[in-house]
Amino acid sequence: MFYYFIILAEPFIIKWLDVYVMMFISITYSTPLLLKFYRFLKSWTFGGDIGKLIISQFLFFPMFNAGFIAYRYFLLGNRDVFDIYSQVSRVLPLAQKTSWSFWIPQSYIAIKYIPHDFHILFGSLCAFFWNIIFALLLNTHH
Question: Domain span at residue 64?
Fold first, then answer.
């Protein structure tokens, strides 16, 4: 959690290309995949709420984040597959740890306390703040 404050405390310049890329990724990658995944997760019964949390955070999201980072590098102009793999391998461990520190509490709160009809709204609100944190994290390790 402290890492967010370190990132946000540093002065930064808005890179509009990165903002547009993050918006494009949200429309073409994140939203379609997450809608399908959460539809699947709604029907998951094994392990109850904790089972859903484990499935989402430790099986689905590491692959999702790797794809997100790779797609971002591709859209920013990097077309070398080996270079993208190298960058994802370098950035993913910290990105995943930061992701867990943000999304595990969010997921637990959503599963436990937020009515199912409001999961998308709650998730979208949290995703707005997460995208800012994630973009800053990726820009500091670019």
Answer: 15-140
